[in-house]
Write a structure and sequence with these properties.
heterodimer, A: 166 residues, alpha+beta, 2 domains, four-stranded antiparallel β-sheet, two-stranded antiparallel sheet, globular, B: 251 residues, mainly beta, nine-stranded antiparallel β-sheet, 1 helix
């Protein structure tokens, strides 16, 4: 019986591989219909995003203390090839609205977020990397600015080589 | 009776299961000898200089991946995403580009004070000549298997670009210098000491991909321009011009 199961299993596996190869070949020549361009509906996608992004939720409470948010921002230096900034790295923070920050930096505010949202903006003078494109050399800058939801602490955006809070 | 979409979805499911069971082919004539210092890729690329591309589109599921041992002192990351280079070329480090997709790493997406590795949907735009980059959180998600679409497409005014996820606008790029694009890269990237970094892996991602032409239509690539698969990573299109399958075996 065990041998029979093994035999049947082998045949099923072989058939699967053959079918996949045939389908793949057919797809190249005749065009297998593509999956739906939007696998998740817009409505459920929006609900999913809100559920997984604290900055988009109506979280109320106290504003995070300045020294805590500066400590968080120093960690945000970390990325490919570059460690978190030292606890002594120069940093300054400013409490403002997201809309005001985005306007000052010619950015367009995420449509899910309110322009009146209170944010901590922290500029840190420390090395931080850029996300690179395939084939490009590693690149970095020596200053960056991070924007956090002032209450939830969710990171909203980070400008590499952006010196905003002076 | 199955619809065309259901048939395709069934194919994708069977294929993904089989690739998971048997592994992706790891080699082709275009395999690169080593990682790109030390960014390792499994990608396919399409160039169309002077083509007036007006966007790119992918869909993929939130799949398991981990860069292995990432920390504040040694921050590694792994991504599954698309990069869209704007302008007319030629390729140069000063090109402007927009990227979007999934990332798992020790970066600012770690949702505030956790000081940890994190898995997120993100987008970023880079102004190559100024060495500036804006990175944006889309959501702090998890490898829950849900499938999502990502689109970068021409915005409402010159040199602006919309970024959509699941058909919802999540951002507008206003920092770049061009309103056309010429290059799409799609696939996975691992940044770490090497592809043998302990604990690093990615299960098989099935990325559906298209470009958006000058008329705003989503179309398949006529053919790929390049395939780059670093040692230790796998990738294939299995003859399907609208897909890229990649994974990184667990080490």
């Amino acid at each position: 019986m065990k041998k029979l199961f093994m035999l049947v299993g082998s045949v099923v596996a072989m058939l699967a591989v053959t079918a996949i190869s045939a389908l793949a070949a057919a797809g190249h020549s005749r065009g297998i219909p593509a999956p739906a361009p939007t696998p998740v509906s817009a409505a459920s996608g929006q609900a999913y995003r809100i559920a997984h992004y604290r900055a988009a939720q109506d979280i109320r409470g106290k504003v995070i203390p300045e020294q805590q948010i500066i400590a968080d921002a120093r960690q945000a230096a970390a990325g490919p090839g570059v460690p978190a900034a030292a606890p002594t790295a120069a940093a300054k923070a400013r409490l403002m609205t997201l809309g005001a920050f985005d306007r000052a930096n010619q950015l367009t505010t995420d449509p899910l977020l309110s322009a009146s949202k209170l944010v901590w903006v922290v500029t840190v003078h420390a090395k931080t990397p850029l996300l690179t494109r395939p084939g490009d050399p590693a690149r970095s800058a020596n200053v960056y600015t991070v924007v956090y939801d002032a209450v939830s602490g969710a990171a909203i955006e980070k400008g590499v080589n952006v010196n905003y809070v002076k | 009776m199955k619809t065309r979409w259901q048939a395709a979805a069934a194919f994708t499911t069977i294929a993904a299961a089989a690739f998971g069971a048997f592994g992706l082919p790891s080699a082709s004539a275009q395999v690169a000898p080593a990682c790109l210092n030390p960014h390792c890729y499994s990608i396919q690329s399409y160039d169309q200089p002077n083509s007036q591309l007006t966007g790119v589109f992918i869909s993929q599921h939130n799949n398991n991946m981990n860069p292995g041992g990432s920390s504040a002192a040694a921050p590694y990351h792994i991504t599954s995403e698309t990069w869209f280079t704007v302008g007319n070329g030629p390729d140069s480090p000063t090109n402007d580009y927009i990227e979007t997709g999934l990332l798992d790493g020790y970066e600012f997406w770690s949702d505030g004070s956790c000081h940890c590795g994190a898995y997120a949907m993100f987008w970023a735009d880079t102004r190559g000549d100024l060495n500036t980059q804006w990175q944006h959180t889309i959501a702090n998600v998890s490898p829950d298997g849900t499938t999502h679409s990502y689109q970068i497409s021409r915005g409402p005014s010159p040199n602006t670009w919309y970024i959509f996820v699941d058909g919802n606008r999540v951002g507008i790029s206003t920092a770049l210098r061009s309103w056309i694009g010429y290059r799409m890269d799609v696939g996975g990237e691992l940044f770490g000491p090497s592809t043998s970094q302990p604990g690093s892996f990615a299960d098989t991602f099935d990325i559906y991909r298209q470009v958006i032409n000058a008329n705003g239509a989503h179309v398949n690539w006529p053919q790929e321009s390049r395939t780059h698969i670093d040692s230790g990573m796998n990738g294939t299109d299995y003859g399907r011009i609208d897909h890229w399958y990649w994974n990184k075996p667990r080490t």
